[in-house]
Amino acid sequence: MPTASRVPAALGFFVFVLAPAAHASPHGLGHVSDVIETFRAFVVQQITQSPPKPKPATIAPAPGGPTVDLSDLSRPEAVERALRSAVPDPGPESRLTVTNGQARLGDFSIGSAETVTGHLLVLRGNANIYGHLLGNLVTVDGDVFVHPGGAVSGDILALHGDVRDQGGEIGGEVRTLSAPLAPAVPALSPLASFGRNVAGVAGVFLTLLALGVGLVTFARPNLEVVSDTVSHSFGRSFVTGLVGQILILPTFGMLIVGLILSVAGILLLPFAVVVYVLLAILGVVGGYLAVAHALGETYTRRRMAQGAALGSPNSYRYLLVGLSSLFVLWAAWCLFGWVPLAGEIVRGAAVLVTWLMATVGFGAALLSRAGVRESFAGRLIPPEALTDEYLWATPQFGVPAVRRPEAGPGARPGTRHDLGR
Amino acid sequence: MRAALVGVALVCWAGALRAQTMRPFTTFRQLHGETRLDARLEFVAGRLRVGPGRGTELYRMNLAYDADRFVPLSRYDAASGTALLGVEPVGGPGLRVVSRHQLQQDAEVELSPQTDLALAVSLGAVEADLDLGGLRLTELRLEAGASRSVVRFSRPNPIRCRTADISAGAAEVSILELGNSRCDRLRVEGGIGRMTLDFGGTWTGSQRAELSLAVTELRLQLPRKVGVRITMDRFLASFDPGGLIRRGNEWVTPGYDQAERHLDLALKTTVGGVRIDWTN
Prior knowledge:
heterodimer, A: six-stranded mixed β-sheet, 16 strands, elongated, B: 19 strands
């Protein structure tokens, strides 16, 4: 390699290696990294070959073909879209009609003695204006030079190019819309996306599980009442949860205003705010865990009713089974989240189901006053009334009742059938 | 085999997904003897800097915007002398969640120091630095949402400014060297946040300011050479009148009546604090 080539190559390599390191540095080096990035872009631009420009030619109008209107350049991205759609790959064979104007391919100049009337579109070339253009000027993949004595009466738009005002006169606005910069947030590969999603979902699952274990250990009666409220008053819980969500902020505002207006209450304001927020979080998270508990209990009881032998069917098991069921959709999102559209649909479904369950749980927590009130938990019969006879004759959750014996001489004395006679 | 091919195809498809992109956009307009400009800047998210520009241009904006969510705004109406610059969300206004990526948007706006300027700025989640020193400001209107904004008048305004209206939501707003602004009247409405009003600079006349604040910590930086009078209406707000003396319902500096220039402040504040610092 000759020395002349080696120097820029080494410089380019040095800058290429240094730039990412500078980006990773703290804010203090932000300007340094900007300078390095600019210099790197300059070096890359000098090294890489730009595509050859086409020979200057007129693009013939296309009767009945694609047409563009350049009279309004105030929305450059819309103009760019229209041009890309009308002429995807500009070449000598391209045909395009410019309303009240003309289109050119390659470099184009308006001489100092010339006056061009109408809008001008220059594709894949520079526009040099020495004379007068009475209209708007648009270039695609090219620069605009307005030389001394040159004049453009309308607007100028350079798409993926630059406008160099070298002393000419421009009557309208000048706009340049450059190509998008390198993505600041690179798209994740499917594997990285999968790993990130799995880590996120697993983290949330384990956190909820830990909270649930804590609830079962220290507040099992309350959790069971909320869980039973979910099972027995699902619709009512949902409506209550929905209304609760709507009212949560106005109630918060009223609480603050009330405390501010009462002279003594203002001292309690910081504590009240913290307690209110904590209660709201506890209501939603605890309610969600109660839904998981109810789901797991229902599933486990049904399995047992079908004769499955399950070891230790207790609240811990219910919670684990329920949470796992609720996270099935999130697991599906982990697997297919990177797939366009389908991933979004699965995520939307997971969000919707999670919100639904959290709303039901929140409502059940409100209805049962955090598991204190049993009115909606299907526990209308007091425990002392739960006789052997009642339990024997009443269908339990998921367990079909034993067929009642016919009333007759063989009926056991003391049973309801016997008493009713 | 078929499953493997499907897998490879899906991987390739996913690899072609478009990443978020920032896009540079520049606009300017040559100065053609215009004597006034009504400029409106709208910026939803990112960083905004405003300052005086070169003498040959009416305005210029250099912008890098999030092309997936925003489109640049650049319109000028020659008949009314009105310019609209900034970015607007794709699909029009509405409730949006601002991501960290959008906060990387960056705009630099330069305005002509040769034309009379009525400036209206509307900011969303923006970190703004507006240096209006040297501009021929006739009117200023600033609406700041959840922003951190600094408005400075680093050089005296060559002409008188009628009013400056500042409206801040959940924002941190600092207005520095207001003496240079030459605004006859300052109106400030503040929501939750922090506000600094520095009345330093070169005073060429008296000023009036009406401040209406709620849950805001206000810091007033007052020059000793100016006679200051504060009319206060406060509710659950602390106020340290250091250096001021009480006269009826108002607080004044000693020698207020003899001062050559006056600053009259009408201050309404609810739940907050007012602190005064004196500057020479």
